[in-house]
Amino acid sequence: MIIGELSAILIIMVPFARYRLLPLGALLLAGLFPVFAAPLASDYLSKDVLARIDNGEGLFASSSGKNPGLSLAPRHPMAQEMAASIDYEEPSVIVEALFSWQKPHASPGAEEEMLAIYNVLRAVGSLEGIEYYSASRKKMRLLYEYSSLIAGANDTKPLADRSLERIPWQAESLFARQKDTTFGDNLYSITMSSATGSVTQVSTNLSQIHLGILPVASAGNIRLRILVLSVDDAVLFYAVSSAKALVIPGIKATLETSFGNRVAAVYSWFSRQLSAAWPISR
Question: Which residue, 61, 105, 180, 208, is most buried by CB atoms nearer than 10 A?
């Protein structure tokens, strides 16, 4: 049996002589085997949330107090893992953000998409110079004066960004130094990992965080978690900032506003970088 120009990758033997040799392609066309496709955004998000982010604007949520929780997290195992870790850490402030980035065109395949996403998130040095909206100043303001990967927690030698040819098979541990206009000059550990259709990044402060001269969080008590999911025609960007910090009315409000505006700036950077890096079929 010949179906167009399909080549027989796999020969399936059946007990009927007239159908003894069937190309896999013929079976796929006949619907006998499922054709695997990228998940839909609706697999991960409620109709209400999906309708609200489809207009191109991000969604934000915050919670604080004794039992802060997540309200925008996608229905995904990695998001569930994030929620469990946050519960264990018992933060005093949580800020979430969710965005949808429309894919500009079809790519060669899922592997190329995820590699592009992974390399964009890994390029910490390209964050230097991005701006965010300062609520207190009512204008755009420089966010990162300096941003670079470094050799280690005790070695601040800067490392240049580099694109990997393939995603590491196990979690990757990185270190960074970032000087920003709100929290000053600090060191961070960064853990990156990937699974089918997803990339995660967790950034944790290694130095005490100050707001001006006021110390607000000790080492290890502020984390930014990012989960990126590839769906049929879009990329979902979910971020959650959590802090076990000094919480007084003024500080709590400042942290919530700052976290939200910073994540919005990071998403804008991510979307620009991904637009430039999105793979093209050849």
Answer: 180
Coil/strand/helix, residue 275: helix
CA-to-CA distance for 107 and 1, rounded, in angstroms? 32
CA dihedral 259, 264, 268, 274 (to 10 degrees): 70
Hey, which bits of 165-233 come out as E strands?
A: 172-180, 184-195, 198-205, 209-211, 214-217, 222-230
Cα separation, 14 vs 34, whole angstroms: 19
Which H or E element spans position 51? helix 47-53
**Per 3-state DSSP, what percentage of the chain is helix, strand, and coil (rounded to 5)?**
30, 35, 40
d(CA 63, CA 202): 20
**Contact assessment for residue 58 and residue 200, using Cβ atoms and an 8 Å cutoff:** no
Per the structure block, which two tokens stand in for 242?
């959590």
Q: Report the pLDDT value the prediction gives residue 191, as an integer from 0 to 100.
A: 98
Q: Which residue has the tokens 């002589």?
A: 17
Q: Which residues are registered as beta bridge partners of 148? A: 177
What's the burial of 222, exposed, middle or buried (CB within 10 Å: 0-12/13-18/19+)? buried
pLDDT digits (tens, 9 = 90+) for 189-224: 999 999 999 999 999 999 999 887 888 889 999 999
Q: Which secondary-structure segment (H or E) carries 212?
A: none
Tokens 């196990």 belong to 170
